[in-house]
Amino acid sequence: MTPAQRIRRAAALATGAAGLLVLTACGSGPGSGSEADASPPKLTVRDAYVPEPVTADMAGGFLTVRNSGGTADRLTSIESTDFGDVQLHKTVGQQMQRVKSLRVPANGELRLSRGGKHIMFLEPERKPVKGEKVPVTLHFAKSDPVKVSMPVEATNHVPEK
Ligand SMILES: [Cu+2]
Fold first, then answer.
1. How many angstroms does the Cα of residue 60 sit away from the middle of ligand 1?
2. Nearest to 40 by CA among 124, 134, 104, 92
3. CA distance linking residue 11 with residue 92, whole number of Å
4. Which of 56, 70, 136, 159 could anchor a disulfide with 127, C-beta 3.0 to 4.6 Å?
5. β partners of residue 49
6. Residue 68 belongs to some domain of the structure
């Protein structure tokens, strides 16, 4: 949001003249352009794969989101026509925990990998088999959705570095 938009939004929410005065005083002055200087997030996805699951009720998914922009973003949700429920998980000790979103740092990457953060595919339409592809759409807080076709690999597959 630009400072002008923020002021308009805030002004629309404010109900009194006093509030408007305060907001005007807090508005951007010359020289406060730090946010505008940073380039927006620019995302690319690579190394996506789904190990063929051992059981029929869930599967893990891994990929790396690279951000070459100057602003961080967040992976907020994932959907797939092949699964009724897709969650974002992190691993704490031996336990998996659901998280609401995962940060994609500016000029950095979010790496999902075995034993760490991962995609949890639940309620499969049918069990994914090696050689197939799992279509997913990644949703981000700032960037447009990204569609990825995740290849199903062998259960013990480890990606090359
Ligand atoms: Cu999990």
1. 7
2. 104
3. 43
4. 56
5. 62
6. yes
